[in-house]
Amino acid sequence: MMAYWTTRRRDVLTGYVFIAPQLLGVLVFVLVPVGMAIWYSLNKWNVFTGRQTFVGGDNWAALASDPQLSSVLLATVLFSGGVVVLNIGLGLLIAVLLNRRFRGATFFRTLFFSPVVVSVVAWTLVWGFLLQDNGGINGLLGAVGIEGPNWLQHGDTAMVSVVISQVVRSVGVNMVLFLAALQGVPSELYEAARIDGARSRAIFARITLPLISPTVLLTAIITIVGALQSFAQIAVLTGGGPELSTTVLVYYVFQQAFEFNNIGYGSTLALMLLSFVMVLTLLQWQLRKRWVFHEQ
User: Fold this and answer.
1) pLDDT band at 245 (very low <50, low <70, confident <90, very high)
2) Which residue intervals of the chain are DSSP H helices?
3) Distance (Å, rounded) from C-alpha 17 to C-alpha 15?
4) Rg of the chain's alpha carbons, rounded to an integer?
5) Does 4 fall in a domain?
6) Total domain count for the chain?
7) Does the pLDDT at position 198 exceed 90?
8) What is the pLDDT of residues 258-267, one digit of tens each?
9) pTM, whole model, 2 decimals?
10) 249: domain range?
11) Transmembrane stretches, by residue range (predicted)?
12) Which letter does DSSP use for residue 36 in this model?
């Protein structure tokens, strides 16, 4: 018996014991729900009677004939694109500015990060009051002679409002990640570049950006996935309206499954959202070899 439990086998068993909780979590909270969603997408489920009828690919075929899906996908692209571009761009800009030594730097870092720890619903409710027709933002605009719109009742301004609300709340995460990356860049490289006469723009493009590119990849993946999964901001601020201007895909899944009790079609939409997230993540992971420093 003792001969069987060699050092290698004990190490392997120890490794499996340590990863067992994670594997169990993935099985229970990821693989099983995805498997159930696949099964539901092949059925028509009457939640009132509890009866399920196998319909095969009917729910998938309904995607092509859904008149609202194109508007939902457009809203998803606009929302996700705006959040990703602004979140990464502003996060990097703020990190570069706050990476310098000056009085009050710690205060401003805390100020920009503090919205991250606020409850999403509480944050969104406050923004809902600010964006009302007689809210705080229009009050400030009125003080300088500008008549502001009813931000949440018009399609264009509603989308801008939810994007800005999301960006202001979450930009602190990217700021912290970029700050950590910037502080890891060797100062000797900057000194050598300045001695050679390089300007600040060239130093940033040729030294800073390549060295922090792994962090840029990480923040891009996190931000894209987070944007595609943003639900509370839409639900609390606009409820998907006006019309379908802010109905993103994740909110449309909720509507179909839980408001219209169309569990089968809602599961199909959820699987489509999952496929989008997986494809975008894998695409970024494959493209990393072309622009991420140290990747082969």
Assistant:
1) very high
2) 7-26, 32-41, 58-65, 69-98, 105-113, 120-130, 136-143, 155-182, 187-195, 200-203, 209-211, 213-228, 232-237, 249-254, 263-291
3) 5
4) 24
5) no
6) 2
7) no
8) 998 899 999 9
9) 0.90
10) 58-291
11) 12-40, 72-98, 110-130, 158-182, 203-228, 234-254, 266-287
12) H
